[in-house]
Write a structure and sequence with these properties.
The structure is a homodimer of 450-residue chains. Chain A has 450 residues and is mainly alpha-helical. Chain A is built from 22 helices and 6 strands. In chain A, strand 5 and strand 6 form a beta hairpin. Chain A is elongated, with a radius of gyration of 30 Å. The model of chain A has no long low-confidence stretch (mean pLDDT 85).
């Protein structure tokens, strides 16, 4: 079965919605994978989105809803009755339910929690306590736990009972009589084992646990490092409180990667599906303001230098190249450091080594571009400006590269996301420093009258 | 069991290596997870790396080697004998083995393939045929397949036989008598089923297959979309040829995300662990050259405008802000489009909608910054330059934003990685266009003598 081509059925769906063919639409939806329904909802206009989503039975809606991006989810949930909301949330895994409830306005949140059955509402409330970017925020409470003295046959019986509630089952977690986590048994071992054997005889007690307050990015690196599919989450006392599975990690990786990619380039981590130009504009303006203020400072500095009028034009002509080369070199260094920190390839104790490496690289690059620029400017305008520009380029590239590597490491040490450092902070600082260095050298060389 | 703190044992390991305490080192290594051994190897100097890796028994070495980044892997494999290489590769899963063999120099590759047992060497050769960025390049051949007429008991017997060869087992793939893929049975269903039942009675035939030539980024999106843990890979005839598991996908996500993040910011996708400043410098220079040449063009353009000497300084002072604001706005638009394309949130048929949305955003942002700049320059230098700069800022931001969104979409249509468009191409073009727009407006306004 291949991937559904949404393009091919979208026009039909739209027509069916226009003609309010509820029965036919429902039959089509029931045959589709929730991810495909998500794809269709993404492509519909707001009113049609709501119409189609409202048709879905609660169970199907509960599988579609967690897949939706926030702007789309807001559309389909707008004006949804409390009863409808409760019945959808009731069908969800606890972690998805908590995510949805957390997004609701506070008054709706309370009403929905009140209308849920006690055990579901308790689970959701328990999860809402955790920071959404921590292990507690991404874990699910639906865990298959057994006492270490239970037999294989008892375990299989328990799986049969819970079969419908637990979607992704890879391991049985084993606890002692104080509910402390002691080990895990894989389904493969369960299949192969003798039915009368006790779990403790075949459990793997060498299993790594995740603390409930671990940051989600660290959890993801932990999963990658140890090639995990699922991992037990424990509290301060070592008591098993939940589990995280690889599908949560894939979401975290995408979220964090996309956030880093946006931040590193001076773009806000905006919702790509966001429709309102006002909201997007509001998110982007603060980043642009940093550059705006920085470059005003650059303009001010530029005006402070008393440049010989006959030489202003040639000096101005090379401002862009000095700025751009400093900016690009600094960006390369900071992006490399940010990537390395995000993937755990660079650690803080490497700071010295990393800076020294970046310095060696920038020595090579600055030498290359200084010599190149020297000869170009030599034939363009003569030896005086060739010397000024080669010297400026050399210092600006070295300065920008080292600064580009240093700032993210410094941010990391202060526990600020290093990706925030790369742009526009590093590039604006490098623009200001670049102009300062270039004009200082120019003034100096011209004044000593070389 | 918590994560190993490498810092705490690294000094001891280094001392043991210096004193050549092979026995003690081996005992420590055997107790560690391969990922922790990788962490230690990363932190050692080249000679110590080789010494420690050479100590590892072939089976442990086979688990550590696939985790290593290329520069480290090259270090530890340098001068490794063919026999040692063969015995390590023999212990690996076919996909990891093929990756390692592909990296070897050609003469070593041939000798190693010759020395492997026929079936292992055939597997590796089969996998080497596929493009390393395709489904075939990341799949493994170790698949548990059963005929649809087999019983549960027979299947469990088969699992018992193959238990050691297949690390990650989540599903049994079911084929018909022509080896065509017909469905899958999860381990959970296997645990719960009656031993005499036939697989076809409980298999899920609604399983999505992956074509062997599908691009790895598409495979990753496919896994994310359908929340898969493992998926069957089929050839043109629908014959089952391998399987891809979620741990391969996590690697792909990391690889592609990191590559995009580097490219989007005009940094090469360099190895973060690379030690040679020459190699890093060689990778970075081409990206810098694009900016270098572009800014030389900007310098040339600037010189072509015959600006009134008395006004050159004020004109030059605002070049950086015009360039930087155009550059940052263009970058924001292109990063958003590149992210959306990478995650499948933006598709090519959205081109019109996306450009219109970016245009609305840029109208808002350019209006905001034009008005702001107008008043600042008004008090700085008077109404003439206030009008020039507000007008330039307005056109430059709109132009840069639309160009920033357009170029990645255009690249995608040409099947070039859109991330390559974002920088330095978009930013350099925007610098040139920004200067051109700014100076044209300046010349025009000054010439009509406002």
């Amino acid at each position: 079965m291949a991937e559904l081509q949404i393009d091919s059925i979208l026009p039909d769906i739209e027509e069916l919605i226009e003609h309010q063919q509820k029965g036919t639409l429902l039959n089509i939806m029931i045959d589709l994978h929730p991810a495909d329904i998500e794809g269709i909802l993404n492509r519909l206009k707001k009113e049609k989105r709501k119409y189609l989503f409202d048709l879905l039975p609660a169970e199907l809606a509960s599988e579609v809803l967690p897949e939706l991006d926030s702007p789309v989810a807001e559309d389909v949930l707008e004006e949804a009755g409390d009863e409808r909301l409760s019945s959808i949330i009731h069908e969800m895994d606890s972690d998805d339910a908590a995510d949805i409830v957390a997004e609701l306005p506070e008054d709706v949140q309370e009403r929905v929690l009140d209308s849920l059955e006690d055990d579901v509402s308790d689970d959701v409330k328990e999860l809402l306590v955790h920071d959404e970017d921590s292990a507690g925020g991404i874990m699910a409470l639906e865990v298959l736990t057994m006492q270490e003295t239970a037999t294989i046959d008892e375990t299989i019986e328990k799986i049969r009972e819970l079969s419908d509630d637990i979607d992704h089952l890879y391991n049985v977690w084993v606890v002692d009589n104080k509910d402390n986590f002691v080990g895990s048994v894989s389904l493969k071992d369960l299949v192969l084992a003798n039915g009368k054997a006790q779990l403790r005889s075949l459990m793997d007690s060498d299993v790594r646990t995740i603390h409930v307050r671990m940051d989600q990015e660290d959890v993801a690196n932990f999963f990658k490092k140890y090639d995990l599919i699922s991992a037990p989450v424990v509290d301060d006392q070592g008591k098993l409180v939940g589990r995280i599975t690889i599908d949560d990690i894939v979401d975290v990786l995408e979220e964090e990667g996309s956030e880093d990619m946006a931040r590193i380039s001076g773009a806000p981590d905006e919702e790509i599906q966001e429709d309102s130009a006002f909201i997007i504009s509001k998110a982007r303006i603060p980043w642009l303001l940093v550059a705006f203020v920085g470059e005003l400072i650059a303009a001010y500095i530029l005006q402070q230098f008393n440049l010989e009028p006959s030489q202003q034009l040639i000096i101005a002509a090379f401002i862009p190249i000095v700025m751009a080369m400093g900016g690009a070199s600094g960006q390369q260094a900071s992006v490399t450091v940010v990537r390395g920190l995000a993937m755990g390839d660079i650690e803080l104790h490497d700071t010295g080594t990393r800076l020294f490496k970046e310095f060696r690289v920038s020595l090579l690059n600055s030498t290359f571009f200084s010599i190149l620029l020297f000869w170009i400017v030599y034939f363009w305008s003569g030896p005086l400006f060739a010397i000024i520009l080669a010297g400026s380029m050399f210092i600006v590239i070295n300065n920008a590269t080292v600064l580009g590597a240093l700032v993210p490491l410094f941010f990391k040490r202060l526990n600020i996301d290093p990706a925030l450092a790369a742009a526009p902070l590093v590039s604006t600082s490098n623009d200001i420093l670049g102009i300062l260095i270039y004009l200082s050298i120019t003034t100096f060389v011209l004044s000593v009258g070389l």
